[in-house]
């Protein structure tokens, strides 16, 4: 029988000790890797929490530490996730170039691993750097990936961002298509409020592009209004109604526009600037409808509110609209005062476009008052100021020339009748 100290026994004991030591080393490595992964999870959670609370520098520090820890481990997918988090945080913190550099490290090695969030953040970084072509490409990829994942809400949000890229590139048709796709995605996600906003923007830019039929635009805007009933935030709803009303106004659908502006009015009452604009637009719409008595209140309230807010140019436009309405109602003295207020406001803001319109109004009043000398003076001033304006329709100049000619003819007729005929007291 072999003794305990035999060579065979000694060899077996050494082999056992060796295997035990190897197992022990492996166990320690596993424990260390598990500890590292837990620390990475903690750092990642801290980074996300810091981002949500607006502490960007703290978030970046946490994500940098997580990536540093992950780079010491064997798991490549974990390294990519950490790089993604850090890159996204750089973009969020307003450092898009750093974000882009780090995000490139999170590009997956296998196609199946590519994630929509990565494409979205790459797009955001490119957009912040002004490369809208690359941004649009990545947003489109992100939208397609979100759709394949069944995440309709994220697809809708991405399509809105894609639309804005197209707008900045003046690609109107592509922008409209992206807004409409966003609306479809939001509807699928059950977010009809966001769908209403997307359709409102689609209709606005359909009108801007000039390539859509009136019926198509009206259909889109009507759908937006129908879905807007689910918008609970008053300010958001008020802005949507105002924007849709403005689109209707540009289409000369003034009855529909007035209805939307009236609905928006109480919703924007707590926002003085927005309230002033809605009041101003309501007055202008009622002028266009020929409902001058109804327009007066809105012109006056808008002028007063713009004045209190220091919006001198906008106040001038309200006075000009008020002057027009009063002149149509035969209230020439009040109209004259309103146009004078408008003229001064446009002078204060160095607005030749507003000035020539005020001068035209003043000339029209003097023409009605049988004071052709003053009328001629104002029409000539209007034509002089018109020359300082760009993109003015030739028909405007033709109209002013015609009005000037009428004033000159009136002057000639009065001279032929004699100095005492039809004399009026000047004011």
TrEMBL record:
Entry superkingdom: Eukaryota
Region called Disordered, residue ranges: 1-35
Classification via Gene3D superfamilies: Tetratricopeptide repeat domain (1.25.40.10)
Signal peptide feature range: none
Bias kind Basic and acidic residues: ranges: 22-31
Keywords of this entry: TPR repeat
TPR repeats: 276-309
Pfam families membership: TPR_12, TPR_7, TPR_8
InterPro entries to which the protein is assigned, alphabetical: TPR-like_helical_dom_sf, TPR_24, TPR_rpt
SMART domains: TPR
Name of the protein in question: Tetratricopeptide repeat protein 24
Classification of source organism: Eukaryota, Metazoa, Chordata, Craniata, Vertebrata
């Amino acid at each position: 029988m072999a003794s305990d100290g035999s060579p065979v026994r000694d060899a077996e004991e050494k082999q056992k000790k060796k295997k035990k030591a190897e197992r022990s080393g492996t166990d320690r490595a596993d424990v260390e890797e598990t500890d590292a992964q837990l620390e990475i999870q903690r750092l990642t959670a801290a980074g996300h929490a810091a981002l949500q609370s607006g502490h960007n520098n703290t978030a970046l520090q946490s994500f940098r530490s997580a990536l540093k820890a992950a780079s010491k481990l064997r798991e490549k997918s974990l390294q990519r996730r950490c790089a993604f988090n850090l890159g996204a945080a750089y973009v969020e913190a307003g450092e898009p170039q750093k974000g882009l550099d780090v995000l490139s490290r999170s590009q997956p090695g296998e196609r199946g691993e590519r994630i929509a969030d990565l494409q979205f953040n790459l797009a955001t970084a490119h957009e912040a750097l002004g490369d809208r072509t690359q941004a649009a490409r990545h947003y489109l990829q992100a939208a397609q990936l979100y759709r394949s994942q069944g995440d309709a809400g994220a697809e809708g949000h991405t399509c809105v961002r894609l639309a804005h890229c197209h707008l900045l590139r003046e690609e109107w048709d592509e922008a409209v298509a992206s807004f409409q796709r966003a609306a479809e995605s939001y509807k699928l996600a059950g977010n009809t409020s966001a769908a209403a906003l997307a359709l409102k923007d689609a209709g606005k830019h359909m009108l801007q592009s000039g390539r859509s039929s009136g019926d198509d635009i009206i259909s889109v805007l009507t759908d937006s209004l129908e879905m807007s009933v689910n918008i609970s935030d008053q300010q958001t709803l008020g802005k949507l109604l105002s924007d849709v009303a403005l689109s209707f106004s540009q289409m000369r659908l003034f009855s529909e526009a007035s209805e939307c502006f009236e609905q928006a009015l109480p919703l924007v009452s707590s926002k003085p600037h927005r309230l002033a604009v809605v009041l101003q637009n309501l007055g202008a719409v009622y002028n266009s409808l020929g409902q001058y008595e109804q327009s007066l209140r809105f012109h006056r309230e808008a002028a007063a509110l713009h004045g209190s807010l220091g919006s001198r140019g906008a106040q001038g436009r309200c006075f000009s609209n008020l002057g027009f309405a009063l002149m149509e109602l035969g209230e020439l003295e009040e109209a004259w005062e309103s146009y004078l207020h408008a003229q001064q406001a446009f002078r204060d803001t160095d607005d030749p476009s507003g000035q020539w319109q005020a001068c035209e109004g003043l000339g029209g009043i003097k023409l009605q008052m049988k004071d052709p000398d003053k009328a001629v003076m104002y029409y000539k001033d209007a034509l002089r100021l018109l020359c300082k304006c760009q993109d003015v329709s030739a028909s405007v100049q033709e109209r002013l020339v015609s009005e000037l000619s009428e004033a000159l003819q009136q002057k000639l007729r009065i001279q032929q009748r004699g100095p005492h005929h039809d004399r009026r007291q000047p004011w």
